[in-house]
Amino acid sequence: xxxxxxxxxxxxxxxxxxxxxxxxxxxxxxxxxxxxxxxxxxxxxxxxxxxxxxxxxxxxxxxxxxxxxxxxxxxxxxxxxxxxxxxxxxxxxxxxxxxxxxxxxxxxxxxxxxxxxxxxxxxxxxxxxxxxxxxxxxxxxxxxxxxxxxxxxxxxxxxxxxxxxxxxxxxxxxxxxxxxxxxxxxxxxxxxxxxxxxxxxxxxxxxxxxxxxxxxxxxxxxxxxxxxxxxxxxxx
Length: 236
Description:
It is built from 9 helices and 9 strands. It has one domain: 2-enoyl-CoA Hydratase, Chain A, domain 1, CATH 3.90.226.10. It has helices spanning 26-41, 62-65, 70-88, 105-111, 138-147, 153-158, 165-171, 180-194, 199-224; strands at residues 3-6, 11-15, 46-50, 54-57, 94-98, 100-103, 115-119, 125-126, 176-178. The chain is an alpha/beta fold.
């Protein structure tokens, strides 16, 4: 199950593990939002979001996308959108510890973090909505464009290419990859450096960088992730 903890050095952690694909649903959103809130209350200096070996997140829970009740579908999808925007605008440094597949919404979750550290391996990362016959909602697009290098937008956003870890670094999904045996140590090293940054200044400058776009995207969530989302697009 998903867990939260905080180290003695002031680094908070959200560990995602639903035993399957770590899909984005009510439980995962609660863990992420709760982790941000708990980290703020504890005055943590950084927040690390972990998946497990082989799986960071497989994206939005398809049971939400396929829910027969349109209001239930809309509420669940909107919660995912607002949660990932909350990660993107969290007032402390955030690190994605990516040790496995990060697909679609899972890749957006990684991109929503300020630093993204992956492992070498045979797993894939990417946003393949185009290949799923889906149009990006604004909230996902603004997060993606903030992280992915513009030279890679066509291949990754328009064409939906899935990348190996090394390709993900070149495209901007990840900042770096390290061997699995050194991954935990490198994540800890990066987090230790981030907690040395003055938190109020960090929060203020992050708000300057992201707040306007986050507010614009957030205002469109209800319209773009409403009752007809996906059902109006899939199959066309």
